[in-house]
Each structure stands twice: as structure tokens, then as C-alpha cells.
């Protein structure tokens, strides 16, 4: 075995020697070739030098200078690129450090914000619980106060109606006594007037007497139509309402009260005198035979309250006595507001009285 190993090692050494000899032979051949090539190049240069002489030398120098300049330019650019690359690296490192700092700051802020939000949420929850407890206690107090107010209202209303009944009973007795006296006085006056009339009437035949009476009646009728002058408050429809004029609601109330007493043509004549400005123009644009009701509806459409029934009713139910307002003014204001509601919808007298009474006591400041 040992002999075989030695033989193998010797064979490998022999192979290495052979390869080494080949390598040496190859290198010698390459050296000879390069030497021959250099000789041929030198010969060519000598030939070119001999041919061209000085010009060839100048051209070679130029080419060498250009090469050196190019190499210098390339080196300069390489240096600039290296400087830029180093600067970019420094910037990247700086940006990376800044980013790390900001990330750390943001994480810290996020932790602080979470902590503050959690604390605020706990505070809000505690406040909400307190508010709920207060709301429950307030609702209980409100219920108790409403019960007390209802009891007081019932007591005051009972006392009020008792006093009113007593006053009405006393007034009725006084009125009965005074009415009897007035009736007696009126009967006496009627008797005396009849006697005076009988004394003053001319003694004519029956037909003449009838004719004379008709003429008197006709004359009295003409006098009623022409000479009666209604003093209705003036109304022009201007906003705000001037001091010398009345609002449309007051004007309508006045006309409604006058319609019951006087004839239609008399009220119409009074309207012509009372209306001014835009309201008068509106009346003049209507036809000549228009009734008082038609004129008033036209005026209400243009100058009346345009609010709906719900809004008027909500205003009435939410009304309260103002500071410095007397009880009489408060009651009149309530009646006017309820009157506007009754013009839109029909309400019974009993219901109207109960609504007025409840709103008067609930909205008045004297109850406290």
C-alpha cells in the first residue's frame, strides 16, 4: 500500500513538472511575441518619424495631452460623485436619526394623549352620573311643585268664584231695586211724552195724518243715513303702528261691536272715514256694493295675523306676565291672544273661560 501511494505521488509530481514546462514554454513564446511586436511598433514609429518628423511628434503630444485632460476630468468627476455620495449618506443618516426622534416623540405623545383621554372619559362618566341624579331629583321636585301649584290654583279659583258669586248676588239685588225704580221713571216719561205728542200733532183727517207720518218717517230715515257719524279709530296698515292709529285687531274689534248697533250702510260710511293709506286704497279697489263683512275679510287677508292656529295657541299657552306689567294689562293681553285663536277655530265659552283662568294663574308672577 505504501509503495502504491509513493508511486501515485511521484506520478502527480511528474505531471506537475510537465505542466510547469509547458507553462514556461508558453511564457517564453508570449515574451518573444511581445518583443517582436514592440520592435515592429518602434520600427513603425521610426519610419513615421522619419517620414513626418516633427509634425508627428506634435500630434502625439496633443493626443497625449488630450488623454491626460480626459483622465483628469474623469477623476475630477469621480471625486465630485464621491463627495455627493458622502453628503447623501450623511443626509440619510441625519434624516434617519430625526425620523427616529420624531417617532419616539410621537409615541410618547400618543401615550400621554391616551392617558389624558382615559382620565377625561372617567371624569365625564362621573359627571354624567351626577347629572342624572340631579335630573331625577329635579323631576321629583317639579312634580311636587306642580301638585302644590294645582292645589293653590284650585283654592284660589274656588275663592275667586265664591267672591264673584257673592258680588254678582249683591249686584243683582241692587240692580233689581234700581231697575224697578228706573222702569217706573221710564213709564212716567213715556206717559208725559205721549201727552205732549198728542198735544203737538196737527188736527188733520185720517188719510192726511197717515201721509204726514210717512213723510216724517222718510225724513227721519234720511237723517239717520246722512247725519249719523261713527267715530271709528283710524287704520292705515302701516308697520309700526302710528300713535294716532290703532292696530288691526283693535280696529276689527271696534267694527264688530259697531256692526251690532248700526246699519250696514252706516258702518260702511264710517269705514270710509276711518281707513287711510294702503287700507283705503284696498277698499277703493273693491266693488261699490261690497258689504262690511267682505271689506273686513279683504283687510284681514292683507293686514291681519297670518300665523297658523298652532302657533297662536302655542304663544297663548307659553305666555307669562312680564316684569312691571300690571294684573289688568296681563289679563287684557291674554284675552287678546285668545281672541286671535278663537278667530281661527271655534271654542266654547266655558272652555274659553277655563283656558283664560288656567293661563292667567300659571303665567302670573303674583302666585310666587
Automatic annotation (TrEMBL):
Paraneoplastic antigen Ma-like C-terminal domain segment(s): 235-351
Pfam families per UniProt: PNMA
UniProt region (Disordered), positions on chain: 32-51
InterPro entries, per the entry: PNMA_C
Coiled coil residues, start to end: 176-203
Keywords carried by this UniProt record: Coiled coil
Protein name: Paraneoplastic antigen Ma-like C-terminal domain-containing protein
Organism: Dreissena polymorpha
